[in-house]
Design goal:
heterodimer; A: about 270 residues; mainly alpha; 12 helices; about 0% strand; B: about 350 residues; alpha/beta; Alpha-Beta Plaits; about 30% strand; globular
């Protein structure tokens, strides 16, 4: 474990050195990312000028909803900073045969392939998310209980784990197919569902989406469960989704590991 | 702790029995209509990249795998280094089955591919070396000693702190070799390490690899298209064509086995008469007073005294047929033979 931490820190250090080599690019990425996030926040503020609550009786009034948005920013910035850049490179590595040099190293290939690139500029959104969460929580009528603060980081980690597992399964598809640009688009569309409170998925269309995105591909647990713990009243009923999120994260990690191993066994390598 | 047979000092480092690799490839027909049909039904066929290869390599050997493009050389190296899994057959390298990808195995070999960059592109090679130290758990003092020695041998001290993208191909390859040898592997797989390099860089790498082999006792398997690599580095040559081994033996052996003649070059006082010179052997070329004759190996001792006596010879050289020519003949012969199997 210590060795893997050391290797990850070496990757992180090298990426920082590279980012600092191309400083203008780094700053531009930060500005672009923050700009896109600011536009989203402005859009949500606009929505709340028309309605006091997202969905009637859901409890997602302005400040709780911004706590929800902040949680989404934190989860996504972790994924975008630590996992997504490596996964995006995988397509090219498979196509060009760069994966070969990963497979000959005495190291877990999944670790190497999913953590070899860190994109520091994506952490900017996460920092804003932390600030936004602090602002939203400070305006709650009742502050979250201590248990909510204790569970929140664990559930954020579960959310990150679910998204990570999904990325790994798509990476496995890349290895099997040789190229899967559309599957990464699929990831983008799918994760879009996680950006909104689960309560909006109701009715004849929303109901099935909610079921699928909770029990088949548990994408709705990624932001909803930690956000609900911090932004909604904590009760005995809160433990069910919490347990579900922990279980879903564990199952997804195991399944993604198995799928990835199976894909590596079928790797064909590119011609030289 | 590695308890494999090879770790205990077994002289056989690589053992391959009936190793085969098949790929299913999809045929893509030309035209829009064919492309649309291909959405619903794709035609495929099975290609034999390697057909039941047997090979044994002893510790410390330097083996060259030679073959035309698509012969199966790189597929063979990929199987031996565990990158891909075989369709049939068995192999052990240092007592391990390569495609099981055990860390204990992967710590003991290195693979360098001339056409692929394994160093971080935007960063100095020193950063890649540092990562290598972490991955292979190289003790710091040993790491520094090995790195400095390798850097000095290849004379790349001034390059390790420059971004890799700013280096020439030859400079990059030297640094790739340093990175590959930092963990002091027992087996080194080299896939066309001198491809695209100038003569000076080729020479430096030849000298370096000879040193690695003799001083560090590394077993080396090299694939190449360059006969210069083979002549400079290897005693043993394995010729692969169409996924099968056509020849496995010494450099001298291939000359004996596949040629029945020698090349005799004469510098005469004057341009000879063709009919007269044909008495001694087949004239491959007559360019003024310089004549190149092909003479049967069995007759050479009988022919030369007469030639020296009857012709105004100023200079003479007797050589084997160039290796390039022999190997090219082998490749041509193999490609002309009817394909069996697939």
């Amino acid at each position: 474990m210590r060795r893997y931490l050391g290797i990850f820190l070496t990757f992180a250090r090298a990426c920082l050195v590279r980012d600092m080599t191309f400083r203008a690019n780094f700053l531009l990425e930060c500005v672009t990312s923050l700009g896109w996030m600011s536009m989203n926040l402005a859009f949500y503020l606009l929505v709340f000028t028309f309605t006091p609550e997202i969905g009637r009786g859901t409890g997602w009034t302005r400040e709780p909803f911004f706590a929800f948005v902040a949680t989404g920013l934190i989860v996504n910035s972790i994924v975008q900073a630590f996992f997504m850049p490596s996964a995006e490179e995988l397509t090219e590595m498979v196509r060009s045969g760069g994966l070969d040099s990963v497979l000959v190293q005495p190291l877990d290939a999944q670790f190497l392939l999913s953590l070899h690139r860190v994109e520091y500029s994506s952490l900017a959104n996460g920092l804003v998310g932390v600030g936004l969460l602090g602002w939203a929580v400070s305006r709650f009528t009742a502050p979250p209980p201590a248990i909510a603060w204790l569970l929140y980081p664990l559930l954020v980690a579960c959310g990150v784990a679910i998204l990570y597992a999904l990325i790994i399964m798509l990476a496995a598809a890349t290895i099997l197919l040789g190229r899967n640009q559309s599957l990464y688009d699929f990831w983008f569309y799918l994760t879009n569902f996680s950006r909104y409170p689960a309560e909006i998925y109701a009715g004849p269309w929303g109901g099935p989406i909610r079921m699928i995105c909770t029990f088949v591909i548990p994408i709705l647990l990624v932001v909803n469960v930690p956000a609900r713990v911090i932004a909604q009243p904590f009760s005995a009923g809160s433990w069910t989704p919490i347990g579900g999120a922990v279980l879903a994260a564990a199952v997804m990690l195991v399944v993604s590991r198995l799928v990835f191993q199976a894909a590596l066994a079928k790797y064909r390598s590119a011609s030289s | 702790m590695d308890n494999s047979p090879s770790a205990a000092g077994d002289a056989t480092v690589i053992r391959v029995d009936g190793l085969a690799k098949q790929y299913r490839v999809f045929d893509k027909r030309e035209g829009l209509a064919a492309s649309i049909r291909g959405l619903f039904h794709r035609e495929s066929r099975v290609v034999d990249a390697l057909r039941g290869v047997d090979l044994t390599v002893q510790r410390g050997e330097f083996v060259a795998l030679l073959g035309p493009n698509g012969a199966g050389k790189t597929t063979f190296l990929k199987l031996l280094s565990g990158i891909i899994t075989p369709s049939a057959g068995t192999a052990t390298v240092l007592g391990h089955v390569p495609w099981e990808r055990a860390d204990a195995f992967r710590r003991r070999f290195a693979l360098v591919m001339g056409q692929r960059n394994q160093l971080w592109w935007d960063l100095p090679a020193a950063e890649s070396f540092r990562l290598h130290r972490e991955i292979y758990r190289i003790e710091p003092a040993r790491f520094t000693r090995t790195r400095d020695e390798l850097v000095e041998l290849l004379d790349v001290g001034g390059l390790v702190n420059r971004p890799v993208r700013e280096l020439s191909l030859g400079e990059r390859m030297k640094l790739e070799l340093v990175a590959a040898l930092l963990h002091e592997p027992e087996v080194l797989f080299l896939d066309e390490p001198t491809i695209g390099l100038d003569v000076v860089a080729q020479h430096t790498i030849h000298r370096f690899l000879r040193h690695v082999r003799t001083e560090r006792h590394v077993t080396v398997v090299l694939t190449t298209h360059y006969m210069k690599d083979v002549a400079a580095l290897c005693e043993r040559l394995v010729v692969i064509t169409r996924g099968s081994i056509l020849y496995d033996g010494s450099l001298e052996g291939i000359v004996d086995r596949f040629t029945s003649h020698k090349i005799v070059t004469l510098d005469l006082d004057e341009t000879p008469d063709r009919g007269r010179i044909e008495r001694f052997g087949f004239p491959c070329e007559i360019r003024g007073p310089r004549v190149t004759l092909r003479i049967d190996r069995d007759r050479i001792a009988d022919v030369l005294p007469g030639l020296l006596r009857d012709e105004p010879v100023r200079d003479i050289s007797v050589e084997d047929v160039p290796l390039e020519e022999i190997v090219a003949g082998l490749f041509r012969g193999a490609s002309a033979a009817p394909e069996s199997g697939a």
